Inverse folding.
């Protein structure tokens, strides 16, 4: 397959995406709880609880500081978990992928559909959080609506990374490794609850060089505070390039796993 | 079907599939003609499922030639898959949806327009006698209903070729008979069917032609009746095995085989053999029955357990 497997993708991937959207809508009640409840809990406990002990971060009230991180984290979790545990269940337990590739769909269509859906789910969550955060008065409007379009590439990145792990995991339990050793540390050390600038210089470089969430939080914080800097261009290009990289890696790993 | 459409729906020449150094399919050649039911028989690990997977383009061959509808499976998988239906060994309905939704969503993977898909879904639910379960969640369906749903799903794109991997595995006799009736009906409509099965009575009833495979190779090919005639003879006389009887049969010059506690004599004149057994050998529990495909199968593939 030429172009790293990208040439195996057709419009059929949208049918896969649509199947996941249909399943999501069928169970919308339970799916819509996290984006409403999570920001409220985090804002109350950390923003206003822990925040009471902190004057401000570089002149920014603590709840305002963490608000964009909450959106970034929600995108990360929803996209990553969709394309790890949920995709694995569809692939291994439900044999949904097997059913799909018996139709004109290719493996590439199936995996692309899964990643597009993970990105969409992240975007839906980001969009649903905006009114909640707005009611708390911790994000700038209407600039913060930009969180929605940026959630898509961010979610795509985490979905693509998730698919790579799904493609190589020996079983569903082993998906706990990336969840705890990759996602959880990133959740804490990506400029989410304290600024990256207080880390030693080398760690700062490491964060912006290798941590997806650090780059995404930086962009989202600029959006919710309506303060833009040239650094954002680097963050956005980084997210797009790394998303493409993991997308291609994921396609090929999945092909290796599923075609024999 | 006009001219130019090949009468051979599937053509395989020296088809091979290796997993590492293991030959799962080891140089098989066969062809399937339009409108017939073609069977793959063989013990577990014979290579039947692997052969089927290559036919429906989800497994790549290692060597050899494989054409479906005259098209190369390596080069035109999408075109081929657009025209065939697959019933996998393991039921895999989409558990997040109802029966009806399963069919409509599956049709989307073929790019079938929605209204057409909905119409076909209703027709096929009716055809497979599932209309009552139209809106039922998948987990409430019995094994037989799930199997029928999977067959209905495989028919959504009106396939010219239907591939069934053990279509009636684990079903009760009622469900099996219903499925047989439907498969024969599909054949009468001009659909070509390729199936694997472990149920030799099923193969005998349904298949126009079949191959028996073992360790990746085709042992024999033919119609069930031909194969029985050629490899198992007309009738089988059975009696309870005992040293006295075996000694007696040897004395009388009658060839026989022993399987566990049963002695079998393959006979074209069963009355005579039965008489010898009863009168001269004082055999017990003597039965005479017609030779079946099962006799052919066991004769060719042996009685050793495979897994």
């Amino acid at each position: 397959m030429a172009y790293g497997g990208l040439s195996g993708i057709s419009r059929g991937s949208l049918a896969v995406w649509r199947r996941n959207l249909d399943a999501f809508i069928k169970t919308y009640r339970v799916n819509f709880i996290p984006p409403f409840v999570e920001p409220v809990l985090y804002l109350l406990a950390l923003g206003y609880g822990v925040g009471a002990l902190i004057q401000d971060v570089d002149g920014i009230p603590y709840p305002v500081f963490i608000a964009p991180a909450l959106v970034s984290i929600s995108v990360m979790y929803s996209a990553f978990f969709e394309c790890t545990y949920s995709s694995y269940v569809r692939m291994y337990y439900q044999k949904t992928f097997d059913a799909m590739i018996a139709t004109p769909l290719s493996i590439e269509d199936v995996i692309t559909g899964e990643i597009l859906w993970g990105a969409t789910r992240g975007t839906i969550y980001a969009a649903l959080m905006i009114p909640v955060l707005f009611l708390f008065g911790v994000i700038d409007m209407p600039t913060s609506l930009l969180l929605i379009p940026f959630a898509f590439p961010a979610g795509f990145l985490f979905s693509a990374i998730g698919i790579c792990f799904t493609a190589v995991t020996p079983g569903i339990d082993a998906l706990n490794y990336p969840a705890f050793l990759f996602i959880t540390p990133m959740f804490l050390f990506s400029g989410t609850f304290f600024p990256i600038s207080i880390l030693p210089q080398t760690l700062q470089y490491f964060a912006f060089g290798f941590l997806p969430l650090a780059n995404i939080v930086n962009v989202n914080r600029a959006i919710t505070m309506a303060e833009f800097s040239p650094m954002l261009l680097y963050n956005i290009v980084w997210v797009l390039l790394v998303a493409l990289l993991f997308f291609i890696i994921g396609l090929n790993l999945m092909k290796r796993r599923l075609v024999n | 079907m006009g001219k130019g459409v090949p009468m051979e729906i599937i053509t395989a020449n020296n088809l091979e599939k290796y997993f590492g150094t293991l030959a799962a399919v080891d140089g098989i050649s066969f062809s399937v003609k339009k409108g017939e039911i073609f069977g793959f028989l063989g013990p577990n690990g014979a290579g039947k499922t692997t052969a089927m997977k290559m036919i429906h383009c989800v497994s790549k061959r290692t060597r050899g030639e494989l054409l479906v509808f005259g098209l190369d499976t390596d080069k035109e998988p999408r075109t081929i898959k657009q025209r065939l239906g697959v019933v996998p060994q393991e039921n895999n309905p989409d558990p997040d949806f109802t029966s009806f939704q399963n069919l409509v969503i599956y049709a989307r993977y073929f790019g079938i327009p929605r209204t057409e898909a909905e119409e076909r879904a209703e027709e096929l639910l009716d055809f497979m006698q599932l209309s009552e379960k139209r809106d039922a969640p998948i987990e409430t369906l019995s094994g037989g209903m799930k199997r029928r749903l999977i067959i209905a799903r495989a028919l959504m794109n009106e396939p010219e070729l239907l591939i069934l991997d053990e279509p009636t595995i684990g079903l009760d006799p009622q469900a099996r008979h219903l499925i047989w009736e439907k498969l024969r009906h599909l054949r009468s409509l001009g659909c070509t069917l390729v199936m694997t099965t472990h149920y030799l009575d099923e193969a005998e009833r349904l298949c126009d032609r079949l191959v028996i495979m073992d360790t990746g190779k085709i042992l024999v090919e033919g119609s069930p009746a031909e194969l029985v005639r050629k490899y198992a003879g007309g009738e089988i006389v059975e009696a309870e095995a005992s040293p006295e009887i075996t000694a007696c049969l040897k004395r009388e010059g009658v060839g026989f085989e022993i399987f566990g506690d049963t002695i079998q004599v393959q006979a074209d004149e069963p009355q005579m053999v039965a008489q010898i057994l009863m009168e001269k050998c004082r055999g017990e529990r003597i039965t005479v029955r017609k030779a079946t495909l099962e006799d052919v199968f066991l004769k060719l593939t042996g009685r050793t357990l495979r897994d």
Notes: Residues 62-93 of chain A form the longest helix (32 residues). The CA atoms of residues 71 and 126 of chain A lie 6 Å apart. Residues 3-258 of chain A form one domain. Chain A has one domain: 3-258.
